[in-house]
Amino acid sequence: MGNRDRHDIAIDILKKASSGMNKTELMKEAGLSFSQAKQYLSMLEEKQLLEIGDKHHFKTTRKGLEFLEKCEACPLFNWDR
Hints:
Order of helices and strands: HHHEEH
Distance between the termini: 13 Å
CATH architecture: Orthogonal Bundle
Largest sheet: 2 strands, antiparallel
Shape: globular
Number of helices: 4
Radius of gyration: 12 Å
Number of domains: 1
CATH superfamily: Winged helix-like DNA-binding domain superfamily/Winged helix DNA-binding domain
CATH topology: Arc Repressor Mutant, subunit A
């Protein structure tokens, strides 16, 4: 996966959670350890970009989806991708 910064990890989590995933699935899909997942999921929830829905599935909120759209529109976001 290479080196990722905090923004890359947060964006990856929000993208993967847009369809709803449990914590274990998100950890695996995003390549995170338990402690990393705990830290990022908590931070994204606190910022209201992620919410816990039915069956403890994490889902990207409308605010999170808007954040992703803005990131995709930013010319700096795709400079090395």
